[in-house]
Design a protein that fits this description.
homodimer, 225 residues, mainly alpha, 0% strand, DNA-binding, HTH-type_TetR-like_transc_reg (chains A, B), TetR_C_25 (chains A, B), DNA-binding (chains A, B), Homeodomain-like_sf (chains A, B), TetR family transcriptional regulator (chains A, B)
DNA sequence: GCCCCGGCTGAACGCCTGTTTAGGGTATTG
DNA sequence: CAATACCCTAAACAGGCGTTCAGCCGGGGC
């Protein structure tokens, strides 16, 4: 994992690499001094090259997004749709990116947002193909379904590693895989067989949205202020 | 929302209430000085009563868990299983708790952990009943399924509010409801009709776990170090 | 009257943060 | 050889943090 072109040993590149790694390991509250120490450099130099910590963060985001785009272009196909994180986790060079992406999802940063949107766009494409080929059921609202699928898979992963963080931040990737292993069966079961035996709740809801009750009835008891 | 008994206007109670509210609004990095100002009290008094910021945080956690337990005892039934957050959001007095719980989920704190475990326990009970009554399909691993359902619903909610935080932290509850509205149809669709049309992936997986390939083949290419 | 006592505060301490400043060291250029 | 330009650092600054400490202030007991 190297900045711009491989083998760039300039101090600037060393700082950027160290920052991405440190942010992934320790979160975005890691101090400039720590990053400087990681890169064997003075704190002042970090500021000198990037202007401020926020700008360093932004540069890291940009770099990570570029790496992800590159990885997608090279490694992704229909077979790995929705498993971008796993692909990243399996590429040694890019393994730290998983931690970085998770931190960004947790912090709501631009990388997190972009990552979610990428996944939604990809998933929309691939599920459309799956529906065409008769592998997946059509939905009443394809976009909403895709958003739901992406949010629940990424969200559950995020929640899982937040609740059970690996002792060594080095092990996020192992934690990601453990999580996937644990929850793969119920997910597959749900996707294949569903959960409810009766259509009643769905039909009731469809009826409800096509003929909703008067809104103000609701609002007075909704708890919104 | 008052500590211990309603109408307790002692400084200690005022501080605790202010802290819960401030933590919910601004996250757990809110400063002792801010909380003290909210409670119209000196920062020193906060420490005097609670010993340290960490202990204040712990006291808030305890208080919130007590409120939640109380609310569950009074308001929850089979009909609202899995919708604890919505019930909280609709009880004006307890509305700030939603924000607090979300912050705890995000930070991985004890309240978050406990909340997840409560939801899993409740959901396990209610899905068992649903299966008995023929409303839900049985699972090959009930506990794993329940965990999956709780993690994906709470996780997707957490991710959603992290990615699209309300401008005014006062509006988390509205955001929660908006999220539920958006994703209710795809969820219901998935639960009722499933996603895949073919059993092949599930059957392949079941075959795979009953006769797994040699492990070391995998490990060498798994990217774990 | 006095005293003591507990709730409470203003001011300070020590630490850590991001950032600035002034200047040292080295290599390139005239 | 001297001068300039650039990379880099040590030291300090300003501000925020959690926390401590000495002491104020009002009420109850003697």
């Amino acid at each position: 994992m190297r900045s711009a072109e491989a083998g760039d040993t300039s101090a600037r590149a060393r700082i950027l690499d160290a920052a991405v790694l440190r942010f992934a390991r320790s979160g975005f509250r890691a101090s400039v001094r720590t990053i400087a120490a990681d890169a064997d450099v003075s704190p002042a130099l970090v500021i000198h090259h990037f202007g401020s910590k926020d700008k360093l963060h932004a540069a890291c985001d940009e770099q990570v997004l570029a790496w992800i785009a590159e990885s997608k272009r090279r490694n992704m196909g229909p077979a790995t749709s929705g498993r971008l994180l796993e692909v990243l986790a399996q590429t040694d060079e890019l393994a730290p990116l998983v931690g970085y992406v998770l931190r960004s999802l947790q912090a709501g940063g631009p990388v997190g947002k972009a990552f979610v949107e990428h996944m939604i766009d990809d998933a929309e494409k691939y599920t459309a193909e799956a529906v065409e080929q008769g592998m997946a059921r059509p939905s009443r609202d394809e976009r909403a379904r895709v958003r739901y699928l992406v949010y629940s898979s990424l969200g559950s992963l995020l929640l899982s590693v937040t609740m059970n963080p690996p002792k060594d931040p080095e092990d996020v990737n192992a934690a990601v895989r453990a999580f996937m292993d644990d929850l793969y069966l119920p997910m597959l079961e749900l996707f294949t067989e569903g959960f409810l035996t009766t259509r009643r709740m769905l039909d009731d809801y469809l009826l409800y949205v096509s003929d909703p009750p008067r809104e103000d009835d609701d609002l007075t008891t909704s708890g919104i202020r």
